User: What shape does this take?
Amino acid sequence: MGQEANRQAQVGQTLLARAQRLLKKHGNALAELEARVRRAEEVSERVRFSWVGAAPAGERLDEWHSPPPPLPQATVIASDGSQIHPDRHGIALYALVNVGAIVFRHGSGARPDTCSEPKLYYRPDDLLTDQGLLIPPGVVNVWRDMAEV
Assistant: This one.
């Protein structure tokens, strides 16, 4: 295991060096990147695929700025969720949405507050449309999104 971890670390260093060379080489190719983003958006619209990606913001890609000094105190609140979509071929028909959250009070010395809230959907009224069809995955995704807020 140690040998494999070492091998993976070496591969990672090689890939990092390559990525840094490419970033330096193409760091100012903003017009080309913006054109590629436009093409991706056009293709996305034609095939009805929801493409979400980053686009250049007008600065070199390899430009960096020193961060400001940290605040003496700050409260950070975060949540993240996951979901299991219903599977008509599964042993039981259900959907699951789980959301975890954390409240971190930097500089207070207090322990972070954390929670995890799972919600199980198993009733036909939750999982089937009015026509008796299985709800689409997007419905479960919306339940997760709403629970994360």
Q: What stands out?
A: The chain has two domains: 2-46, 74-148. Residues 74-148 form one domain. The chain has four helices and three strands.
